[in-house]
From TrEMBL:
Gene Ontology MF: a single term: beta-N-acetylhexosaminidase activity
Matches recorded under CDD domains: GH20_chitobiase-like (cd06563)
Domain Beta-hexosaminidase bacterial type N-terminal per the UniProt entry, residue ranges: 9-135
Superkingdom of origin organism: Bacteria
Protein name per UniProt: beta-N-acetylhexosaminidase
GO cellular component annotations of the record: membrane
Gene3D superfamilies: Chitobiase/beta-hexosaminidase domain 2-like, Glycosidases
Species this chain originates from: Streptomyces microflavus (Streptomyces lipmanii)
UniProt similarity note: Belongs to the glycosyl hydrolase 20 family.
Domain Glycoside hydrolase family 20 catalytic residue range list: 140-485
Length: 536
C-alpha cells in the first residue's frame, strides 16, 4: 500500500492502526471460517465482497479468513472489533455480532477500490495490506435521516442507501415516513392514509419567490408495503443498522387529514394533500378519536419496526387551529392546562407514555430542548443551544443542529450547486467540525449525548443522483466525526477522503466533487452563536 494512504485511507478512521508490512492474497480458493455466532458477519462479507470482487469466499472449517466472537473482548463494546491481517490469514474478532459487521466494512475498505465495483468478476486475486486494527466508535448513534415523505423513493433505492451508510459505519437510518405532502407507511386500520394520503396532484418547484410560487403539473405518489418495510428492517439489521421510523404528529399531518378529515380541528373541511413546502397550519385535533388513531398507527409501526426508538416528530406545530377551536379550548381547560398552546406538550406526553408502555423510547424534535417529558430522547435541531439545554435537563440527546447537519442546504456558494433549501451553505468542513458533545459541557451533559445525525429533507431532492450528490462526501464527514471523535482531525480526514473517493467512484456514487474550496473552507463561527432555523 503506498505510504500516501494515511491510516490506509480508512473512513471513518479507526482507533488504532498498526501496519505490519506484507500482503495477504485473497483468491478464488480463499475460504471463510465462521466460528459460532459469526455466521451473519461471514454471510455479509460473502454477499458484499463475493460478487463485487469475484471471490466465492466459500465456508470451510479450514478457511484462512476467520471470524470469531469472543466474550473476553468486552472492552470493545457493542460495535468495536479487532482485525489482524497477516500474510497467511485474516482474523476478525469482536465481543458482539455487530462489531463483526463493522469489521467486515473495514475489510472491504482494505481491498483495492476496484474490488468494490462489481466489474471485477473472475479477475482472480486481490491483495490486502497486513495490518493490526483495534476500533471502537466514539458515539453510539451515528445516523442519517432520509425524508421519503416529500419525495418518495422506491425500496430498491433504500437498500442501496443502507449499503452506503453501512460502508461508513453509520448505524441509524431515520426514515421520515409521513408529512404534509405524503404518507408512505401503510396502516391496515386506516387504509386511506396511503390510498389518499400517498398522492399529491402537483408539487411546488423551487423555494417561494416574492409573490410567486411555481408548481409542476405532475402528480407525485408512492407508498411502501409492509413486506417491503420488513425486508428493509431485515436488510439493515444484517448490516448492523437500526431503522428508526418517524410518524409526525400533531403537526405535519396534512396528508393524514386529506385522508381522514375527522381527525382535524374542522371535520367538515376537505383538504388536499399539501403541494407546497413550508409549515402547514392544519394540525390534528385533540379529541379522543385522534388518540385512538395515533395509537393504532403506532401499534402497526411497532409491529413492523423493532427499533427501540420510535420518532413522533412534534416540531413546527402552529397552534392557531387549537386557539380558535372551542373543542380544543375546552379540552385544554378540562386537562387543567394554561391554554390551547399547552396542548402540544400534553399531546406529546400522552403519546410518549403510550410508547413507553410498549417498551419503546419516544423521540421528538426539540422545539426548545426542554419542553418534552424526560423519557423522550430529544433530537435537537433548531438552535445550537438546544442540545445542551436538553442534556442538562436530563434528556438523552441526538445532536442534529441544522447549520451543521442538514444536507438540504447547498455545499458551497458556487453557482453550479443544485436548487436547495434557502440558507447559507453547510460545507464539508462544517459537518466535520461539528462537535455533538463539546468539551466545555459538564461530564453528565456530555454523557447524555447519544450521537449525531445528518438530515436530508427532500423538498428539492427528487432523484437518487441528487440524494447522493448532497449526501456525499458530507456523510463521510459525519461518519468520521461520530465514529472517530477528536481523532478524526480535518487534514487527516481530507487526505483519507481523497483516497476514499475511489471507493465512491467504484460504487457509482455521484458525490459532490472535492475542490480546493470545499477542502479548505473555514469552519462556521461557533456552535453557541447559532441562530434558530426559521419556522419556514
Ligand atoms: C425539522 O427540520 N422540521 C425538524
Amino acid at each position: 500500500m503506498p505510504a500516501s494512504r494515511p491510516h490506509l485511507a480508512l473512513l471513518p478512521r479507526p482507533t488504532k492502526v498498526s501496519p505490519l508490512g506484507g500482503r495477504l492474497v485473497l483468491d478464488r480458493d480463499t475460504a471463510v471460517r465462521a466460528l459460532p455466532g459469526a455466521e451473519p458477519a461471514a454471510a455479509l462479507l460473502r454477499s458484499l465482497v463475493g460478487p463485487a470482487a469475484g471471490l466465492p469466499l466459500a465456508p470451510s472449517p479450514e478457511g484462512r479468513i476467520v471470524l470469531a466472537l469472543d466474550e473476553q473482548l468486552g472492552g470493545l463494546g457493542e460495535e468495536g472489533y479487532g482485525l489482524t491481517v497477516g500474510p497467511q490469514a485474516l482474523l476478525l474478532r469482536a465481543a458482539h455480532p455487530t462489531g463483526l459487521l463493522r469489521g467486515v466494512q473495514t475489510v472491504r475498505q482494505l481491498l483495492p477500490a476496484e474490488a468494490l465495483s462489481g466489474g471485477a468478476r473472475g479477475s482472480g486475486s486481490w491483495e490486502l495490506p497486513c495490518v493490526e486494527i483495534t476500533d471502537i466508535p466514539e458515539l453510539p448513534w451515528r445516523g442519517s435521516l432520509l425524508d421519503v415523505a416529500r419525495h418518495f423513493r422506491p425500496m430498491d433505492y433504500l437498500l442501496r442507501y443502507v449499503d452506503l451508510l453501512a460502508l461508513h459505519k453509520l448505524n441509524v437510518l431515520h426514515l421520515h415516513l409521513t408529512d404534509d405532502q405524503g404518507w408512505r407507511m401503510p396502516v391496515d386500520a386506516y387504509p386511506r392514509l396511503t390510498t389518499v394520503g400517498a398522492r399529491r396532484a402537483r408539487s411546488q418547484r423551487g423555494p417561494d419567490g416574492p409573490g410567486t410560487t411555481q408548481f409542476d403539473a405532475t402528480p407525485h405518489e408512492g407508498a411502501y408495503t409492509k413486506a417491503e418495510l420488513r425486508a428493509l428492517v431485515r436488510y439493515a439489521a444484517e448490516r448492523g443498522i437500526t431503522v428508526v421510523p418517524e410518524i409526525e404528529m400533531p403537526g405535519h399531518v396534512r396528508a393524514a387529514l386529506a385522508a381522514y378529515p375527522e381527525l382535524g380541528n374542522h371535520p367538515e373541511r376537505r383538504l388536499e394533500v399539501w403541494d407546497r413546502w413550508g409549515v402547514c397550519e392544519t394540525i390534528l385535533g385533540v379529541h379522543e378519536e385522534v388518540f385512538a388513531f395515533c395509537r393504532a398507527v403506532l401499534e402497526e409501526v411497532m409491529d413492523v419496526f423493532p427499533s427501540p426508538y420510535i420518532h413522533i416528530g412534534g416540531e413546527e406545530c402552529p397552534t392557531s387551529e387549537w386557539e380558535s377551536s372551542p373543542a380544543a379550548r375546552e379540552r385544554a381547560a378540562a386537562e387543567g392546562l394554561a391554554g390551547p398552546a399547552a396542548l402540544h406538550g400534553w399531546f406529546m406526553g400522552r403519546i410518549g407514555a403510550f410508547l413507553v408502555e410498549h417498551g419503546r423510547t419516544p423521540v421528538g424534535w426539540a422545539v426548545s430542548g426542554t419542553e418534552l417529558p424526560l423519557d423522550f430522547t430529544v433530537m435537537a435541531w433548531r438552535d445550537a443551544s438546544h442540545a445542551r439545554a436538553a442534556a442538562r435537563r436530563g434528556h438523552r440527546v441526538v445532536a442534529a443542529y441544522h447549520r451543521t447537519t442538514y444536507l438540504d442546504y447547498v455545499q458551497s456558494e458556487a453557482s453550479f450547486e443544485p436548487v436547495a433549501q434557502p440558507g447559507d451553505p453547510v460545507t464539508l468542513r462544517t459537518v466535520h467540525d461539528y462537535e455533538p458533545a463539546p468539551a466545555e459541557w459538564s461530564r453528565e451533559e456530555r454523557a447524555r449525548v447519544l450521537g449525531t445525525q445528518a438530515q436530508l429533507w427532500t423538498e428539492y431532492v427528487r432523484t437518487p443522483e441528487e440524494i447522493e450528490y448532497l449526501s456525499y462526501p458530507r456523510l463521510c464527514a459525519l461518519a468520521d466525526r461520530s465514529w472517530s471523535g477528536g481523532r478524526g482531525d480535518w487534514p487527516g480526514f481530507v487526505e483519507r477522503l481523497r483516497h476514499h473517493t475511489a471507493r465512491l467512484d467504484a460504487l457509482g456514487v455521484p458525490y459532490r466533487p472535492l475542490d480546493a474550496r470545499s477542502l479548505e473552507e473555514a469552519t462556521y463561527a461557533s456552535p453557541s452563536s447559532g441562530t434558530a432555523r426559521p419556522l419556514s
